[in-house]
Amino acid sequence: MSERPFLRLAVVGHTNTGKTSLMRTLTRDPNFGEVQDEPGTTRHVEGARLLVNDATAIELFDTPGMEDGIALLDYMDQLAQRAQRLDGPDRIRRFLDSPESKRRFEQEARVLNKLLDCDAGLYVIDVRDPVLGKYKDELAILASCGQPLLPVLNFTRSPNQRAGDWRDALARLGLHANVEFDTVAPALDGEAQLYDKLALLLDSHAALLKALNEDIVLQRDIRRADALRLIAELLVDVAAWHLGSASDDTSVTQATETLRRQVRKRENQCIKALLKRYKFKAADFPYHDLPLKGERWGMDLFHPQALRDMGIHVSKGIAAGAAAGATIDVFTAGLSLGAAALTGAVIGGLWQSSGPYGKRILGRLKGYRELSVDDAVLRLLGARQITLVNALERRGHAAQGPIVLAGEPGNIKESTDKQSGDDGAIATVAPASNANDDAGHTPLSKGRLPEELNEARGQPLWSTLSADYSPNPRREQVIKSLAKRLA
Ligand SMILES: Nc1nc2c(ncn2[C@@H]2O[C@H](COP(=O)(O)OP(=O)(O)OP(=O)(O)O)[C@@H](O)[C@H]2O)c(=O)[nH]1
Ligand SMILES: [Mg+2]
Fold first, then answer.
1. Highest CATH level, class, for 7-201
2. CB under 6 Å to ligand 1: residues?
3. What average pLDDT score do residues 97-125 get?
4. Please, how many CA atoms are within 13 Å of residue 100, restricted to the half-sphere of its CB?
5. What is the pLDDT of residue 419?
6. Which of helix, strand or coil describes residue 124?
7. Where in the chain are the domains?
8. At what angle do helices 375-393 and 249-277 cross, to 10 degrees?
C-alpha cells in the first residue's frame, strides 16, 4: 500500500486500443497526448493529475502500447529458466535488468516500470478484437507485476464487439472485475462505474475514490447550472430586444435583416461560451460560425422548417415565409400598459416620466415601428442550446468527429470505426423519432412562453443587444428564475 495521500494509476494495454483516448476523457482534456488510428502513437510515459478541492486525488499515467507480448513472454521464460522459482514481480525485475529491456522491448519495459511504480493499472481493451494469443500473453505479463489490474472494455458500442469473450478470458486469468467505458461516448455515469470498480480492488483508497466520484457529480451539476444560465441570458437578451424602424417596407425589411443577423451573432456567442464551459474546442462544433450566413443547423435559424423540425408550432404567415421570425410589435403589447393608458399618459405629458420608454413612445407617435423576435424563434433558440448541452454532456473528450446536431437531444451516435481526424467520423445527435418528444421536455416547446420571457419582452433595456442596455437587478432575477425553469 502506498503512503501517498493520492492514487497512482497506469493506463496500459495493447497498442492502439484507446489508452490516450481514455486519458483525455478522464482528464476532460482534449489536448492530452497524441491520438491516432495507428499503432505506436504514444512513445513515452506521460502523466496527468485529477484534483479534488485543489488537491491531487489521482495521478494517471499514459503508457506506450504493448506490441509483442508473445515474444516478450518467451524471452522472460528464457531468463527465468536460468533462475529457480522466481515469482511474478521478480521475473519482471529480471527482465527489466536485462539488455533487451533497453533494445527490442524498450516500449514494454517502460510500461512495466510504470506499472510497478503505481498502485494499480487500467488495462484498456479494444473489444472488437478477438481474444488472440498475443493479448493473453500480454495480460499474463502485466498480471505478473502483482499490481491490481482493472480491465477497461473500450469500443463497447461497436456492433461487432466481443465483450462476452473478453470477460470469459479475463476471468480465466483471475480478473473478475471489469468495466465498460467507451472513451468517445461514455455513459453519463461511466466514470462513477470505473472508480467504483477500482475501489473494490483498492480497498485502502476507497474513501478517496468515493470523494472523487462525489466531486465529479458536483462538477457536472455546476457545469449544467452554468450552461443553463448562459442559455437563459441568451433568451432574455433576444426576447427583450426591440429594433426601431421607419414604417415603410424597405426600412422594415432592412431592420428585419439586422435583427436576424444580431440574433445569430448572439446565439454564436452562447455556443462558444457553452463549448468553453464544457472544455471542448470551437473546432468540435465547426458549424457554429455559419448562422451569420444563415446555414448552421443545416438551415436558416429563421426558416420555418427549422422551427417545425424542433416541433415548434408555426403559424400560417410564417410558414409562407413572410418576414418569418420578426414580429411587427404593436408597441403597447410589449408593455403592460393598455393602449388607452398609454395614450392617456402621453396626452397628460407623463411619457417623460416613463423614462427609457419615452424614446420609444415618441418614435411610435412619429410612425415608427418596432421589430422583435418571434416566439417561435425564441423557442427554437432555447431548444437548440439545450440540445447542444445534452450532446456536450455525453461527449467524451477523446471524441474527434464534429458534433452534428440533427435537431433533437438524444444519444450521440458514434461511428463504429476507429475515429480518424482525417475522415472525420461524425458523432451525431440522432433525431428523435418524434420531433415533438424532445421539444415537449423543455418548458419552451409548447404552450405559453415562460413568464420570464414575457416579462423580458416588455423590457427592451434588458437586452445586451441594445445600445441602451444597462444592468438591472430584476433582469438578473429573471435570468436566474428562467435558468431554474430550464433545468
Ligand atoms: N469510435 C471510437 N474510437 C476510439 C475509441 N477509443 C479510441 N478510439 C480511436 O482509436 C484510435 C487509437 O486511439 P489512441 O487513444 O491513440 O490509442 P492508444 O492505445 O493510445 O494507441 P498507442 O498510443 O498507439 O498505443 C484513435 O483513432 C481513436 O480516436 C472509442 O471509444 N470509440
Ligand atoms: Mg497512446
1. alpha beta
2. 15-21, 35-37, 39-42, 65, 154-155, 182-184, 398, 400, 414-415, 418-420
3. 94
4. 16
5. 53
6. strand
7. 7-201, 223-486
8. 20
